[in-house]
Amino acid sequence: MPLHRSDIVLTASNTNGRAELKILGIVTETHDAGLALLEDGDPVLVLEEERFNREKHTQEFPRLSLEAAFAQMHLVIRDIDVITTPWDMRALRRTSANAVLGWLPLKIVALCSFHSG
Q1: What is the pLDDT of residues 17-71, one digit of tens each?
Q2: Which of 19, 36, 62, 111 has its CA 20 to 30 A from that of 48?
Q3: What letter would DSSP give residue 4?
Q4: What DSSP element (H or E) covers 8?
Q5: Looking at residue 110, what DSSP letter applies?
Q6: Structural domain tally of the chain?
Q7: In a shared domain, residues 19 and 64
Q8: 3-state DSSP helix/strand/coil percent for the chain, to nearest 5?
Q9: What string of DSSP letters covers 42-70?
Q10: CA nearest neighbour of 46 among 57, 62, 58, 30
Q11: pTM given for the model
Q12: Is 34:84 a contact under the CB 8 Å cutoff?
């Protein structure tokens, strides 16, 4: 019988015998790119890419931060349960509006767009 991701998370345990959830947050499009690693909701590591690439306020993908984090914490990608990234709210609103308003007649869509923005 094949294992599902939920089986793996539930059977993983730390020294307390509890399931341990590892969340990796990656940020690139803010004033400082970087990452944060949380274990069971607690931050255990936060790294900014500028510390590694020596470029102040870099927005580059935090490749060097990821390498350092995985080496420092002795992790492989398989150890991470969830990866999160922020999104562009304007793009999200536009995509959502297109999905919701896409079936309406063009005049109504134009009227809704005029009032929302």
Answers
A1: 556 899 999 988 777 889 999 999 899 999 999 888 888 888 888 889 999 999 9
A2: 19
A3: P
A4: helix 5-11
A5: H
A6: 2
A7: yes
A8: 40, 20, 40
A9: EEEEEEETHHHH--TT--S--HHHHHHHH
A10: 62
A11: 0.59
A12: no
8 HSE (CA, 13 A, CB side): 10
Q: Are residues 14 and 36 in the same domain?
A: yes
25 & 44 share domain: yes
What is the amino acid identity at position 83? I
Same domain, 36 and 60: yes
Give yes or no: residues 113 and 56 share one domain. Answer: no
Does one domain contain both 57 and 69?
A: yes
Specify whether 81 is located in the same domain as 92.
no
Check which CATH number belongs to the domain holding 36 and give it.
Answer: 3.30.420.40
Q: Please say whether the beta carbons of 12 and 19 come within 8 A.
A: yes
Question: Residue with structure tokens 């306020």?
Answer: 57
- The answer for residues whose C-beta is within 8 angstroms of residue 54's C-beta and 6 or more apart is none
